[in-house]
User: Fold this.
Amino acid sequence: MRFLKIKSNYAIILIAVTVLLIFLHFLGVLSPFENLAVKILTPIQTRIYYVGTIVNETFLGSSSIETLEQQNQKLNKDIEKLTLENAQLKILENENENLRNQLHLIETYEKEYISCRVITRQFDDNANILILNCGSAQGIEKGMPAIVGEGIIVGTITDIKPNLSSLLLISSKTSKIATTILNVDNTSGIVTGGQDMSLKMEFIPVDLAVGVGDIVVTSSLEKKIPQNLVIGTIENVSFPPNSFFQTADIKQIVNFENINIVSIILPPKL
Amino acid sequence: MIKKTLYVLIILLLIVSHVSFFSMLSFPYNNLNLILALVIFLTVLIDYKKALLLSMILGIFLEIYSPLFFGITVLTLLLTTIIINLLFIHLFTNRTFFSLLVLTFAGVATYNILILLFSYITFFFNNLLHHMVFNYKYVINGLWQLVFTYLIVIVYFFLYTSFRKYILNIDGIKTA
Assistant:
């Protein structure tokens, strides 16, 4: 019995110490130690995460040869379609540049970015979160958008520590991004996460026409998110019964499971 | 000194591999929880006090990288260790493979129930963007976690029985 008592005392002491440590964390007393641990472990973690990505793609990928062939054929068709679109867009770009010059509307700032590496992630049914190796010390703030490639938005910063930050992917059910469809009406809506890391656009007015293949971009409604960051293209549109709004499934451009590096867009310096 | 350095290196290796390697694998491999398996194994077969201390240290490190409310992981690990030990004391008389298997099930179930419970409590008070949700996917993930924990615990068990003398010598535990 005495032995049991000693052991339970030990457990109580450890729980008390843990509660104290949690309390000290919220007071910020533990920050220097946490930062030190992050600084020591992050270089190793980024490499291990990268190895994990390779293992995932090489050994645990579910793509069969048939699926890859089908994907390849589909991608070739997409390339043809995009080349045509690209040519049309270049014509429009030239026209746009001429008009800007004429109206003296040259932008006075350029976007600034910070590149961050992913060190871990937590994907569950409700939220898909990436933990990044940069935080408030690098100038990152809550609500800033993260992009990959030339300007494909993947999420927003939801939590920051001095050298770490949490990126909530747009495929999360808890993520809501104000968006616009690049069509005649510039239809607006909200993009949120659907089942199995899919994307859907909600609150599209029922009287506006939305076409399959239309490009969805961010709107100018959110303070820290620049306009025209690409989200994806409309895959299909549904009309829920007894609703004033339509819902569209969005075909995503990025595979959220294999993101290693993201760029955080900093607010413009005027 | 060598012993302590070895412990620190093992702890760091566990944290780094759990946080950055296993968590990024695709389903169902992302349910592999090396740390929970080690804590259960230590509690049942080696030393409860060491298991408690390890739960606290590993838990605190995991908190740094966890998107959940700070404290949930470490408290869950500690309480899981305590509950496994209580079950072990009251239900089993000796340390056997069978008791390890039963308590592994109890440990995984306790861990998942507690983390969900704490997650709901913190969500209620903080309205966080990230919290666990109980649905069929959570149950499926829990079942996969059980399968992988069984596999790891069995590997630990055979490694332990094969290299018992060496491990106990490093550890300074006296054999009966």
Summary: Chain B has seven helices and no strands. Chain B touches chain A through 46 residues (CB under 8 Å). The mean pLDDT of chain B is 85. Residues 2-171 of chain B form a domain with the Arp2/3 complex 21 kDa subunit ARPC3 fold (CATH 1.10.1760).
